[in-house]
Design a protein that fits this description.
Chain lengths: ~250, ~300
């Protein structure tokens, strides 16, 4: 089980004041479940994932994994404990190939297995194995390779940060299929999919709505989706002072 | 000719020599020829007026290589050598140079190599020069190569110059002229650490019509080391030149990068890109999230960068 207790995260505004990006985040997530996290841009979803991975250090609160307080552990130590995160915006490298990175993600992989993971995300292995994860790859290609690494890690806690972003329609369908196959009812681990894509919501066991730096709501798709929809529509109407989106 | 284990390992480091290679070879050890062998298409002859050799590749020689490594194992030895390479018309060869210094003593060891390379009409040459130094004593290891290369009409030359650790002090000068439709590509890879100093000055004259030149420098400066990189492209005719220098700076190192473009002809197209920066934090974080320690992540990034 993964538990976040009273998490607060601040960033400095650069002028001596601090901005609260996360506040009072309390959440328990269980093994064997598939979660979706959704919510407005800037709401704190990526920050939350980075707090779990150890990339951001919260100013208050604790991260607890299977009863162990891991708040002070490094990124590497958390990776060893079984937390894995596919970045929303993966960095590019010079001189590091797709095959190199897949082998770092999962050292036990042989080339045949690496090819399998690339096919899972819709990439033709022959074309990509030796390519640099550098400026020569498109945004969607980088994203798919990032997802392939997360799949290869086979981690007990797998966090996908907008796996669909920049990815073509065909691959999104493929990704949905793979996430269902790999994580739905898989008692060995949990997966958290941060997403803005409606199609990912119904496949998940629970939806967590993160907005304004905190968990606003959580529940099954049936429970949550109508209220999310309401909320979004109200905001759009309110913010724009009229129904500019043509939403009735 | 017998080589000691130290010498064998130096030869491996600078010229990937695990055994005596096929083809033409000249191994210079502490200022003397330890092994010299010409092949039927490549002559190696000693210069008569000064130390050094002439390597003459006959026209039309293809798929052959010539190895001319230099090793220094005597502490305090200062070596100066002049080598000339004539790469005959329409040939296609690999030249493996390189210098390894093992200095186990207290005196400074130094090798200064002055190379003249002429790549004749329509020929293709790949030239690889690795520098390597070892030894824990206080004696310094210095290497100062000067290379003057002429790329004749329609010829192609690619020079890869690599120095990763081990050399305390190096000053490299490379001057080139590229004639009609000639192509020159220079790739430099450098890693300095400790208090090492490295300086590289490249000047390429694009004298012929439609000549091209490309300079790619990748360097890493660690600890208190310092690097100066100067690359000057001079376009004297309709030609194309590009300089790209990319450096990673670490610790208290210093890097001075000075690309310079001089167009003396309205149809010369010259460009440069230069960047110096730390290892991107994002890259480290990404690799650590895959389970690498910070040091392993740094090593992985540097290895890729200098590959
Ligand atoms: N490293 C950082 N430095 C400063 N501010 C940050 C940093 N990371 C995030 N923030 C701020 O925290 C807030 C939440 O950002 P976060 O990336 O978590 O949002 P998100 O919910 O993932 O949004 P999106 O849907 O656009 O991906 C934003 O206002 C953002 O500007
Ligand atoms: Mg985000």
């Amino acid at each position: 089980m993964l538990e976040l207790k009273n998490i607060k995260l601040n960033f400095s505004n650069g002028n001596g004041t601090a901005r609260e990006v996360l506040q009072d985040v309390n959440i328990k997530l269980e093994k064997g479940k598939l979660y979706a996290i959704t919510g407005p841009n800037g709401g704190g979803k990526t920050s939350l994932a980075k707090v779990i991975m150890g990339i951001y250090t919260p100013s208050e609160g604790q991260v607890i994994l299977d009863g162990e307080d891991i708040t002070s552990l490094s990124i590497t130590e958390r990776a060893d404990r079984g937390i894995a995160y596919a970045f929303q915006q993966p960095p590019r490298f010079k001189g590091l190939t797709v095959e190199n990175v897949m082998k770092i993600a999962q050292p036990s992989l042989d080339t045949v297995q690496i090819r399998g993971y690339l096919r899972d995300v819709g990439l033709c292995p022959e074309d990509y194995l030796d390519r640099d994860i550098g400026p020569g790859l498109s945004g969607g290609e980088i994203k798919r390779i990032e997802v392939a690494q997360l799949l290869a890690r086979q981690a007990p806690v797998s966090i996908f940060d907008e796996p669909e972003a920049g990815v073509d329609l065909w691959t999104i369908q493929k990704l949905i299929g793979i996430i269902i196959r790999r994580y739905k009812g898989n008692s060995r681990g949990m997966a958290i999919v941060i997403t803005h894509n409606e199609q990912f919501l119904p496949i998940c066991d629970e939806i967590i709505l993160v907005a304004e730096g905190t968990v606003k709501e959580r529940g099954t798709t049936e429970e949550i989706w109508p209220s999310i929809r309401e909320d979004v529509i109200c905001k759009m109407k309110g913010q724009c002072g009229g129904n500019v989106y043509g939403i009735q | 000719m017998e080589f000691s284990s130290v010498e064998k390992s130096l030869l491996e480091s600078v010229a990937d020599l695990h055994s005596i290679p096929a083809g033409a070879v000249n191994i210079r050890r502490d200022g003397e020829a330890a092994l010299r062998r010409s092949s039927s298409h490549i002559d190696i002859v000693a210069k008569t007026d000064r130390p050094g050799i002439d390597v003459i590749v006959k026209p039309g020689t293809v798929n052959e290589s010539v190895h001319v490594p230099v090793i220094l194992t005597r502490s305090g030895f200062k070596d100066l050598v002049y080598n000339t390479f004539i790469i005959g018309e329409d040939s296609d060869v690999l030249v493996v140079a390189g210098c390894g210094i093992h200095n186990a003593g207290h005196q400074d060891s130094q090798h200064d190599g002055i190379h003249e390379i002429i790549v004749k009409k329509g020929a293709r040459m790949r030239y690889v020069e690795k520098h390597y130094g070892e030894g824990n004593a206080e004696g310094k290891r210095s290497l100062n190569p000067t290379t003057v290369i002429t790329v004749e009409e329609g010829a192609y030359a690619e020079m890869e110059m690599v120095q990763l650790r081990g050399v305390d002090d190096t000053r490299r000068v490379t001057r080139a002229s590229v004639h009609d439709r000639g192509n020159l590509k220079i790739v430099e890879k450098l890693l300095t650490h400790g208090e090492q100093e490295a300086e590289s000055e490249i000047e390429i004259n694009l004298v012929g019509l439609d000549g091209t030149a490309q300079v790619i420098s990748r360097s890493v400066a660690q600890d208190k080391s310092s690097q100066v990189f100067q690359a000057k492209l001079i376009g004297k005719a309709r030609s194309n030149g590009h300089v790209e220098c990319d450096a990673i700076i670490m610790g208290d190192a210093q890097i001075h990068s000075v690309p310079e473009l001089v167009a003396e002809n309205g149809d010369a197209v010259l460009t440069h890109e230069a960047a110096i920066g730390k290892i991107a934090g994002e890259q480290l974080i990404k690799l650590m999230s895959l389970g690498l320690t910070e040091q392993e992540a740094v090593d992985t990034i540097l290895r890729g960068f200098l590959r």
